[in-house]
Amino acid sequence: MADPVQFTGPHGPKPKTPFSRRNIMLYGTLIVVSLYYLVPLYVMIVTSLKGMPEIRMGNIFAPPMEITFEPWVKAWSQACTGLNCDGLSRGFWNSVQITIPSVLASIIIASVNGYALANWRFKGANVFFGILIFGAFIPYQVMIYPIVIMLREMGLYTKLGGLVIVHSIFGMPILTLLFRNYFASLPEELFKAARVDGARFWGIYFRIMLPMSMPIFVVAVILQVTGIWNDFLFGVIYAKPDSYPMTVQLNNIVNSVQGVKEYNVNMAATLLTGAVPLFIYFVSGKLFVRGVAAGAVKG
Amino acid sequence: MNSVEIKNLDLNFGAVKVLQNLNLDIKQGEFVVLLGSSGCGKSTLLNCIAGLLEVSGGQLFINGKNVTWSEPNERGIGMVFQSYALYPQMTVKGNLTFGLKNAKMPKDEIEKRVARAAEILQIEPLLDRKPAALSGGQRQRVAIGRALVRDVDVFLFDEPLSNLDAKLRADLRVEIKKLHQQLQNTMIYVTHDQIEAMTLADRIAIMKGGKIMQLGSPDEIYNRPQNLYVADFIGSPSMDFFEGHLENGVFTMGDIALPMADYEYANGPVSGPAIVGIRPEHILTGDQTAGAVTTQVTIDIVEPMGSDTLVYSSLNCKPLHIRMDGKAKVAAGETITIGFDPVSASLFDPTTEERI
């Protein structure tokens, strides 16, 4: 056997130093930034688990001496907003009833819109698309009053159905843009091949385009669920106390000026309200990655 | 009966006229290649035949039926795309049967057709795979299979081999030719690759700016190009052109006088200014020069390619390419004697650029 070659000078992989200046800077910055974001969350969780006497002692960073879930129960089912004293639960179910139909309606309509605009270039498609995009840049405030009148005439003002319609319409420009660009990025030849194979508008949409579009649907769901769930403006304008979404109710609980400020209840209410978008991020984040990986297959 | 007839076809994209007054008749079982550089309208023409683009004027007949307004699937065509365009979420079998299911064909008939296509293309072991698990050549076979199962009259190929590497391209080219001999279908094939065009076609249509410059057999296109564009386009390296004067059957360029007595004129002998085009392999060297009109040229560059040797030189201050035998011993800087063969040359009118 030949002797192993003896090298002089650098050879093989370059040795790495774990505590190089670069690593210290990098991880130091990352730790500081994440602390910056996590400390308020920590304070919220800790405070929501304390009783009022403990909060009055003023050590907001101290962990609870006695863990109590009372504030959470109170925030969910007993906190008062105006005349109603049934907590956030009412707002939660209102928000669910607003979010689910609006997300479904806006995504279904926008995906068909985007598909038609990308693949079936009809006469005036560009003008239509231009108007739609222009719609995305009009400030919401301009349209608030006209929509109040429209909803009133339709008998949907202060009804959940009215809010669903409003959310579906306002999601349309950005979602259509999203879907159009995604469908336009799919190879045009696939569309042509499907036409030669005798598939028509809906056949191509359901059999060819939809199965290839999971990633963009997940993106649209994330966008819409968080956007509609977190909406405050439309909720406060187009609903009434009975039909307020969760965000508006949260505001009413936190900003109530009567009685003592129950910080623990406020914190619990806020965490409850934020739980849904958080949940969506966690669940769909994984789906999203999987969807992108599956969609990366080139035909 | 003609398999495909294109009558006075126009196609505009807005104000841009892509195809103008185009006429083309394709016989039953013929293999026609549409050849041209990019942007010449060849793929556009194919898409019009397929019904994927709406024509702006004119008529289209397939098997004697006017299909100008028909949907793509009603025209009796199958199409193979450059990027294969396989449906990624379906298996190979799903890809093959998609069109048949859309046509609401009975199940046993579908099975029969898939089995036949899979056998012809030798893709039986691949039927349950997804396109992502196939190689480029296999994907292209499946794409051809998708046209095959539909049992169509006319196959349309849109640069089907351009995405493959050189070796696979040569293999599949032969297979497409075999397939054509076996099926005897009409095939229209778009490519920008001259070799594909020359090897596959019964007739080649060379296109430029939405017009057919010449339609003819590969032999006609190569040896009797109708105009300067075709002469220049076909052949690699291309024809060399020299300006001169044609008088009393003698073509004069500089101090060289070529008697054109044996030349086949397109419309009888003429006189006046002319351009002669000579292919690199039609320049005579060595012993072949005996009895021919000869001159001396200096070699600039030598490119040995194995099977033959390409020599770059110049004549009358114009570039001159000479294709010599692969064993020729020549070096840059040498002076060699070359001869001209008037019969294999082409003469063109400098103003109309048409063949004389």
UniProtKB/TrEMBL annotation, chain A:
<dbReference type="InterPro" id="IPR035906">
    <property type="entry name" value="MetI-like_sf"/>
</dbReference>
<feature type="transmembrane region" description="Helical">
    <location>
        <begin position="24"/>
        <end position="45"/>
    </location>
</feature>
<keyword id="KW-0472">Membrane</keyword>
<keyword id="KW-1133">Transmembrane helix</keyword>
<feature type="transmembrane region" description="Helical">
    <location>
        <begin position="265"/>
        <end position="283"/>
    </location>
</feature>
<keyword id="KW-0813">Transport</keyword>
<dbReference type="GO" id="GO:0055085">
    <property type="term" value="P:transmembrane transport"/>
</dbReference>
<protein>
    <submittedName>
        <fullName>Sugar ABC transporter permease</fullName>
    </submittedName>
</protein>
<dbReference type="GO" id="GO:0005886">
    <property type="term" value="C:plasma membrane"/>
</dbReference>
<feature type="transmembrane region" description="Helical">
    <location>
        <begin position="204"/>
        <end position="225"/>
    </location>
</feature>
<dbReference type="InterPro" id="IPR000515">
    <property type="entry name" value="MetI-like"/>
</dbReference>
<feature type="domain" description="ABC transmembrane type-1">
    <location>
        <begin position="92"/>
        <end position="284"/>
    </location>
</feature>
<feature type="transmembrane region" description="Helical">
    <location>
        <begin position="98"/>
        <end position="118"/>
    </location>
</feature>
<feature type="transmembrane region" description="Helical">
    <location>
        <begin position="125"/>
        <end position="148"/>
    </location>
</feature>
<dbReference type="Pfam" id="PF00528">
    <property type="entry name" value="BPD_transp_1"/>
</dbReference>
<keyword id="KW-0812">Transmembrane</keyword>
<feature type="transmembrane region" description="Helical">
    <location>
        <begin position="160"/>
        <end position="183"/>
    </location>
</feature>
<comment type="similarity">
    <text>Belongs to the binding-protein-dependent transport system permease family.</text>
</comment>
From TrEMBL, chain B:
<keyword id="KW-0813">Transport</keyword>
<dbReference type="InterPro" id="IPR012340">
    <property type="entry name" value="NA-bd_OB-fold"/>
</dbReference>
<dbReference type="InterPro" id="IPR008995">
    <property type="entry name" value="Mo/tungstate-bd_C_term_dom"/>
</dbReference>
<dbReference type="GO" id="GO:0140359">
    <property type="term" value="F:ABC-type transporter activity"/>
</dbReference>
<dbReference type="GO" id="GO:0005524">
    <property type="term" value="F:ATP binding"/>
</dbReference>
<comment type="similarity">
    <text>Belongs to the ABC transporter superfamily.</text>
</comment>
<dbReference type="InterPro" id="IPR047641">
    <property type="entry name" value="ABC_transpr_MalK/UgpC-like"/>
</dbReference>
<dbReference type="Pfam" id="PF17912">
    <property type="entry name" value="OB_MalK"/>
</dbReference>
<dbReference type="GO" id="GO:0016887">
    <property type="term" value="F:ATP hydrolysis activity"/>
</dbReference>
<keyword id="KW-0067">ATP-binding</keyword>
<keyword id="KW-0547">Nucleotide-binding</keyword>
<dbReference type="GO" id="GO:0055052">
    <property type="term" value="C:ATP-binding cassette (ABC) transporter complex, substrate-binding subunit-containing"/>
</dbReference>
<dbReference type="InterPro" id="IPR015855">
    <property type="entry name" value="ABC_transpr_MalK-like"/>
</dbReference>
<feature type="domain" description="ABC transporter">
    <location>
        <begin position="4"/>
        <end position="234"/>
    </location>
</feature>
<dbReference type="InterPro" id="IPR040582">
    <property type="entry name" value="OB_MalK-like"/>
</dbReference>
<dbReference type="InterPro" id="IPR017871">
    <property type="entry name" value="ABC_transporter-like_CS"/>
</dbReference>
<dbReference type="GO" id="GO:0008643">
    <property type="term" value="P:carbohydrate transport"/>
</dbReference>
<protein>
    <submittedName>
        <fullName>ABC transporter ATP-binding protein</fullName>
    </submittedName>
</protein>
<dbReference type="InterPro" id="IPR003593">
    <property type="entry name" value="AAA+_ATPase"/>
</dbReference>
<dbReference type="InterPro" id="IPR003439">
    <property type="entry name" value="ABC_transporter-like_ATP-bd"/>
</dbReference>
<dbReference type="Pfam" id="PF00005">
    <property type="entry name" value="ABC_tran"/>
</dbReference>
<dbReference type="InterPro" id="IPR027417">
    <property type="entry name" value="P-loop_NTPase"/>
</dbReference>
